[in-house]
Amino acid sequence: MNALDSFPDDVFAPLGKAFARVTPEIDAVETARILSVGNGVAQVVGFTDLHSEELVRFSNGVMGLAWSLKPNKIGIVVLGSTNGLKPGDRLRRTGRIAEVPIGAALLGRIVDALGRPIDGGDKIDADGHLPVERPAPPIMHRDPVEVPLQTGIKAIDAAIPVGRGQRELIVGDRQTGKTAIAVDAILNQKDTGVISIYCAIGQRASAVARVVENLRDADALKRTVVIAAGGDDAPGLQFMAPYAATTMAEHFMAEGRDVLIVYDDLTRHARAYRELSLLLRRPPGREAYPGDIFYIHSRLLERATHLREEHGGGSLTALPVIETQAQNISAFIPTNLISITDGQIYLSPDLFEKGHLPAIDIGASVSRVGGKAQLPTFRAVAGNLRLSYSQFEELESFARFGTQLDDETRRKLTRGQRVRAVLTQKEHDHFTVPEQIAVLLAATEGLLDHIDPGDVAKAEAKLRRLVRDDLPDLTPDLAAGEPLSDQARQSLIDAMTRALEKEEGDGDA
């Protein structure tokens, strides 16, 4: 007799009813196997219906990106370490195109190129996900760039204005202060409502940590998203990082917000793409870069714009950073990016070595948006600053060879030296709009001509205190950027003259 026969029927009846309610389902998952694996890429066979840029998952949990679809094999960009992967290992489709989380929960967080937190914090409660690769807004959805994005840096705001929705390239040799300018632009958005995104590509972990610390010290991290794909990360993550960062920024732009995004830097991004392309056996071209190297940056930077009100009204301002070698601004990647962007801020190593910081070469820098994105007061005060400063530099170089200078030449040299001293600025020392206008007006009107260039910084501090504390009626008009009337302009000049004379008298006493 079977032992189960001794159990009453009412014991098995509930189980039978439960089994009757179960509907068997078959989950079909398409898999493949690794044919070969290299530094950051894998060749696989076995997929029959894989989509371009679809995410795949290897047996060890590492994600990959379908990139090179060929009839006999498929090239997969590995978004992680290839250690532990070997020929014969299995991988499977996820059915998802590469996407990243979006939403306000990202603010204050440090994430990787897939939007995964790497700051040790909690899981990100995102509002949703959007594809990494998205088409740029159509031309008819865009509005003109007319609202300035103040950086707090006098040399930029006065001579190379940047507008909200503009793409302004920061270019220069190594160790000339490119990242410092970009970070200062982020820090200066504290009270403007602008959301900032800092995308580090191929940077050392210590350099990224230093930027994060600066943001945290200035209480700017809470309105900033940091996307980090370091030099030790897989080249696939470095390539994907700027597109992921732009997708996160576009979500805020669609909500009507103004966003500033920094790509630091696109030189390393281009090298990561070159590495992946060569490993996948794509034909090399000039300097071993593949033929579509221009396209990877153009489709990225074309996503920066100012939207019309009916399409959200937000803006995305891009500050891509690019590195040159031996001041060769005509190299392949720099010239590509110069042709894509709306101007460039060029940092000269010669000025850096002389201590003229920030080392911005005004003559070689340009903003193609120009005065359209500059406050009217700036145009009135510093409208001819670029031309006059370039003429001063040319005159200074010729004056070194002559001993006899007429009075007019001496006056121009004296004025130019004071203007150069005024354009010198310490890192993280941001000037408000009223402070910049007052200092620039003092320099261009000759109020600083009698002051030694080494003492200009002290005079600047006096003028900043004057505008901040002693001119309450005039400061709001300066902050709004409205053109000053002749009477208001003369009142400001008189007040600054008295302040500088008092400073000089105090010094003599």
Written overview of the protein:
The chain has helices at 9-21, 154-159, 178-187, 205-217, 235-254, 266-279, 293-301, 332-340, 349-354, 376-382, 385-399, 407-423, 433-444, 456-470, 475-480, 486-508, and strands at residues 31-37, 41-45, 54-58, 63-69, 74-78, 90-97, 99-102, 110-111, 128-131, 169-172, 195-201, 224-229, 258-264, 315-323, 343-347, 366-367. It folds into 3 domains: 31-97, Elongation Factor Tu (Ef-tu), domain 3 (Beta Barrel); 100-374, Rossmann fold; 380-508, Lysin, CATH 1.20.150.20. The model has no long low-confidence stretch (mean pLDDT 91). It starts with 8 loop residues before the first helix and ends with a helix. Strands 8-12-11-13-14-10-15-16 form an 8-stranded mixed sheet, with helices on both faces. The protein is elongated and about 110 Å long. A hairpin with a 3-residue loop joins β1 (31-37) and β2. With 509 residues, the chain is α/β, with parallel strands linked by helices. α10 runs parallel beside α13 and α14 crosses α16.
Briefly, what is this?
The protein is an alpha/beta fold and 509 residues long.
Which outline best applies? elongated
The biggest sheet, with number of strands, parallel, antiparallel or mixed sense and barrel status, is: 8 strands, mixed
* Number of separate structural domains: 3
Radius of gyration: 29 Å
What's the structural blueprint in terms of helices and strands?
Blueprint: H1 9-21, E1 31-37, E2 41-45, E3 54-58, E4 63-69, E5 74-78, E6 90-97, E7 99-102, E8 110-111, E9 128-131, H2 154-159, E10 169-172, H3 178-187, E11 195-201, H4 205-217, E12 224-229, H5 235-254, E13 258-264, H6 266-279, H7 293-301, E14 315-323, H8 332-340, E15 343-347, H9 349-354, E16 366-367, H10 376-382, H11 385-399, H12 407-423, H13 433-444, H14 456-470, H15 475-480, H16 486-508
Helix pairs in contact: 5-6, 7-8, 10-13, 11-12, 12-13, 13-14, 14-16
